[in-house]
Each structure stands twice: as structure tokens, then as C-alpha cells.
Amino acid sequence: MKAITYTAYGTPAELQIVDAPTPKVAPGEVLVRVKAAGVNPVDWKLAAGYLDPILEVRYPVIPGWDVAGVVEAVGPDTFDYAVGDEVYGYVRKEWVELGAYAELISAPVRTLARKPRELTFEQAAGIPLAGLTAYQSLRRVDIAAGETVVIHSAAGGTGSLGVQIAVALGARVIGTAGAHNHDYLRSLGAEPVLYGEGMADRIRALAPEGIDAGLDFYGDGAVEILQGLVRDRDRVVSIADQEAAAKGAHQLWVRPDTADLTFLSELADRGALTVNVEHALPLEQAAKAWELSAAGRTRGKIVLTV
């Protein structure tokens, strides 16, 4: 099978497209023929060595954790899916080695769910990591209908899904973004606020009574700003600030979860969750996809088509 690989920590230039062996399929796993693979910042951060202190890496690495595709084969004593089923998932295993930037991937069933019927494979591949991150962040701060939540970096891949999920849960959403993304946020159901100097004052003007929760999907001092706005300092979560826990906020690391993925599928199938795929590139352009991701100017998601 064709796959993207790297053999040492480095830059996107080190990515190669190679012929790789078909993955073995263990009990409790299925073999998925990949239709699309989601691109996330963690992919190139892993390849640069930023997560070496906490994640085991075995070379050569096929990167990518987000996948949408069709079940090609099932492992022994695996009855959750049948050949031909359309699935999607956040396929994070015990170590980094055999990922989604390939024609085939073996996936533990605990990392998968049925693909949303109303979305394309490219759109579905953009959901798992970002959608789970957003949903699990909202659950971590116990957001409830009628409450007000601020989402920092609301137009990005995780933020744009977080806005839609929060709206579907009945929350009022204030989203920070550059001015060029404000109409986009309004279309998702958020009230946009310009980030940068004076952001806290602009949020207070929209919610003078204070906010109930804050989600930081970008960093850059947002944890402290959000803690100064929430009524309860315990209701701030960050995926971007590595010192968030030390500051008294929740520091979230997303987990694969079939039930959560199923919930996101149900939202998509009733029209409450969609994915803006800004770039859909062929597998062999993975390096370009990483460069676009690292630039940090993407509205929505980047995916690779296989």
C-alpha cells in the first residue's frame, strides 16, 4: 500500500511516499480502506519531536490519527463492524507508528464510530480529533443550556466545531477571531469578538454579567484572560497552554471515544454540525498540508484524500 512516512524527527521536507506493508489486524480491530485523513497540528508537532517526552515513537512512522473510510476486513472475534461499513475515527494507539496517511489502517474498534451519513468522507475526516477535543472540553467545564461560553480561536478547526456543538447544546457562544472570520462565526451561531489587545473588555461589553465557561484553543495568554471573566475559575479549559494546569485551569488531552464520536455523527446527521474543508489535498502533498497547518491561517480543516 502507499503511505506517507518519516524515519526521524524533522521538518515536512522529510516526508516520503513509500510502498508499505499492509497492517496486521488484531482481535478487536478492523482494517479500514482510507478515503480521507484529517490533518491536525499534532501531526507535524509529533514529527518535529515536540511530544517526545510523553509519546513512544517507532520508526518508520506513518503519521495521522484522523480517518474516514470503509471497512476492508475484520480481526478475530470482532463483531462491531462488517466489511463495507463506512466508519470514521480518532485512531490513536499505544504508540506512534501506523497512522492514517496511508491507503489502509488497522483501527481498534474503540477508536471508531459509524461515519455521519450526511457528510462526505473528506468532511468526516475533519471531525474526530477536533470534534472530540471540542466536545470533551465542553463536557469538562459542564456547559449547560442557557449558559454563556467564550471560545478562543473559534474559527479554526477545533473552534468552529466547538461553536456548533455548544450551540447545539443550547449555550450562548462568544467566539474570538480575526475580523475576516466574523461573518463566518455568525453563520455558525456565535457572537464574534476581535482577539488581541482589549479582547477582555470587548467580551465584557457583550456579557457584562460575566461568562460561565471559557475554552482556549490557541494559547497566547488566553487562560488568564478567561479566568478573569468566568464566575467560577474552575470552568476554564485549554488545549494550547502547557502551563494551564499550574494556573488552575483544566489541561485537556483528547481521548478516543466511540460514544462521543457517535454523538457527533448524530449532530451531523440532523444538520447541527458540519465541517468547512478549506484544503483537500492528495496524499502525496502531505508536506504542503503540514505547511498550511503550521501557518495557522486555515478556516476549518485540512484533509488528505486517498
From TrEMBL:
Residue ranges occupied by any Enoyl reductase (ER) domain in the UniProt entry: 10-304
Protein name listed in UniProt: Zinc-binding dehydrogenase
